[in-house]
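Just scan this pair:

***
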Amino acid sequence: MNDIVDTAVSAGSFTTLVAAVKAADLVETLKGSGPFTVFAPTDAAFAKLPEGTIADLLKPENKAKLQGILTYHVVPGKVMAADVVKLKVAKTVQGQELKIDTKDGVKIDGANAVTTDIGCSNGVIHVIDSVVLPH
Protein backbone atom coordinates (compact mmCIF):
# COMPACT_ATOMS: atom_id res chain seq x y z
CA MET A 1 0.00 0.00 0.00
CA ASN A 2 1.34 3.44 -0.94
CA ASP A 3 1.78 6.39 1.42
CA ILE A 4 -0.33 9.54 1.05
CA VAL A 5 2.04 11.27 -1.37
CA ASP A 6 2.53 8.25 -3.66
CA THR A 7 -1.22 7.57 -3.65
CA ALA A 8 -1.91 11.18 -4.68
CA VAL A 9 0.73 11.01 -7.43
CA SER A 10 -0.59 7.74 -8.86
CA ALA A 11 -4.21 8.97 -8.85
CA GLY A 12 -3.32 11.56 -11.50
CA SER A 13 -6.00 14.05 -10.43
CA PHE A 14 -3.89 15.78 -7.77
CA THR A 15 -1.01 17.23 -9.82
CA THR A 16 -1.54 20.75 -8.41
CA LEU A 17 -1.75 19.43 -4.84
CA VAL A 18 1.44 17.37 -5.31
CA ALA A 19 3.27 20.38 -6.82
CA ALA A 20 2.13 22.50 -3.86
CA VAL A 21 3.23 19.85 -1.33
CA LYS A 22 6.67 19.79 -2.99
CA ALA A 23 6.93 23.61 -3.06
CA ALA A 24 5.98 23.75 0.64
CA ASP A 25 8.57 21.09 1.60
CA LEU A 26 5.85 18.85 3.04
CA VAL A 27 6.68 15.70 1.05
CA GLU A 28 8.74 14.11 3.84
CA THR A 29 6.08 15.01 6.42
CA LEU A 30 3.29 13.39 4.38
CA LYS A 31 5.47 10.36 3.69
CA GLY A 32 6.09 10.08 7.46
CA SER A 33 4.52 7.50 9.73
CA GLY A 34 1.48 9.66 10.52
CA PRO A 35 -1.21 8.64 10.55
CA PHE A 36 -2.78 11.58 8.72
CA THR A 37 -6.18 12.31 7.27
CA VAL A 38 -5.89 14.49 4.18
CA PHE A 39 -8.85 16.34 2.70
CA ALA A 40 -7.36 16.47 -0.80
CA PRO A 41 -8.56 19.03 -3.34
CA THR A 42 -8.47 17.82 -6.95
CA ASP A 43 -6.89 19.75 -9.81
CA ALA A 44 -10.42 20.93 -10.68
CA ALA A 45 -10.78 22.27 -7.10
CA PHE A 46 -7.55 24.26 -7.43
CA ALA A 47 -8.77 25.55 -10.81
CA LYS A 48 -11.70 27.26 -9.01
CA LEU A 49 -9.27 29.63 -7.25
CA PRO A 50 -8.90 33.10 -8.77
CA GLU A 51 -6.49 33.19 -11.73
CA GLY A 52 -2.87 33.57 -10.63
CA THR A 53 -3.50 32.35 -7.06
CA ILE A 54 -1.66 29.04 -7.48
CA ALA A 55 1.32 30.57 -9.30
CA ASP A 56 1.57 33.17 -6.54
CA LEU A 57 1.41 30.56 -3.76
CA LEU A 58 4.11 28.45 -5.42
CA LYS A 59 6.63 31.32 -5.23
CA PRO A 60 9.40 30.69 -2.66
CA GLU A 61 8.54 33.87 -0.73
CA ASN A 62 5.02 32.51 -0.09
CA LYS A 63 6.17 29.14 1.25
CA ALA A 64 4.91 29.77 4.82
CA LYS A 65 1.46 30.81 3.54
CA LEU A 66 1.34 27.73 1.28
CA GLN A 67 2.34 25.49 4.19
CA GLY A 68 -0.48 26.99 6.27
CA ILE A 69 -3.06 26.36 3.54
CA LEU A 70 -1.89 22.79 2.93
CA THR A 71 -1.67 21.82 6.61
CA TYR A 72 -5.21 23.20 7.00
CA HIS A 73 -6.25 20.24 4.79
CA VAL A 74 -4.57 17.71 7.13
CA VAL A 75 -5.96 16.29 10.36
CA PRO A 76 -3.78 14.19 12.70
CA GLY A 77 -4.84 10.55 12.94
CA LYS A 78 -6.64 8.23 10.55
CA VAL A 79 -10.24 9.49 10.50
CA MET A 80 -12.40 7.32 8.27
CA ALA A 81 -15.62 8.68 6.72
CA ALA A 82 -17.79 6.84 9.25
CA ASP A 83 -16.01 8.83 11.99
CA VAL A 84 -15.87 12.13 10.09
CA VAL A 85 -19.68 12.25 9.88
CA LYS A 86 -19.90 12.05 13.69
CA LEU A 87 -17.81 15.22 14.07
CA LYS A 88 -18.80 18.89 13.90
CA VAL A 89 -15.20 20.12 13.75
CA ALA A 90 -11.76 18.60 13.22
CA LYS A 91 -8.57 20.27 14.48
CA THR A 92 -6.03 20.53 11.67
CA VAL A 93 -2.24 20.23 11.70
CA GLN A 94 -2.27 23.98 10.87
CA GLY A 95 -4.00 24.61 14.23
CA GLN A 96 -7.44 25.86 13.21
CA GLU A 97 -10.57 23.73 12.99
CA LEU A 98 -12.37 22.55 9.86
CA LYS A 99 -16.16 22.74 10.13
CA ILE A 100 -17.96 19.52 9.21
CA ASP A 101 -21.56 19.67 8.01
CA THR A 102 -23.49 16.48 7.29
CA LYS A 103 -26.95 17.95 6.62
CA ASP A 104 -26.77 17.52 2.84
CA GLY A 105 -23.96 15.14 1.97
CA VAL A 106 -20.67 15.79 3.73
CA LYS A 107 -19.14 19.25 3.59
CA ILE A 108 -15.72 20.15 4.94
CA ASP A 109 -15.62 23.94 5.41
CA GLY A 110 -18.13 24.14 2.56
CA ALA A 111 -16.22 21.81 0.21
CA ASN A 112 -18.07 18.65 -0.80
CA ALA A 113 -16.49 15.30 0.02
CA VAL A 114 -16.64 13.50 -3.33
CA THR A 115 -14.64 10.33 -2.63
CA THR A 116 -13.83 9.01 0.82
CA ASP A 117 -11.71 6.41 2.56
CA ILE A 118 -8.83 6.08 0.11
CA GLY A 119 -6.58 4.00 2.33
CA CYS A 120 -2.85 4.72 2.48
CA SER A 121 -0.05 3.11 4.47
CA ASN A 122 0.16 6.21 6.69
CA GLY A 123 -3.44 7.40 6.79
CA VAL A 124 -6.42 8.13 4.59
CA ILE A 125 -7.39 10.55 1.81
CA HIS A 126 -10.85 12.07 1.39
CA VAL A 127 -11.25 13.91 -1.93
CA ILE A 128 -12.90 17.35 -1.80
CA ASP A 129 -14.13 19.56 -4.64
CA SER A 130 -12.80 22.92 -3.37
CA VAL A 131 -9.68 24.27 -1.72
CA VAL A 132 -10.47 25.27 1.87
CA LEU A 133 -8.65 28.26 3.32
CA PRO A 134 -7.74 29.03 6.93
CA HIS A 135 -9.77 31.85 8.43
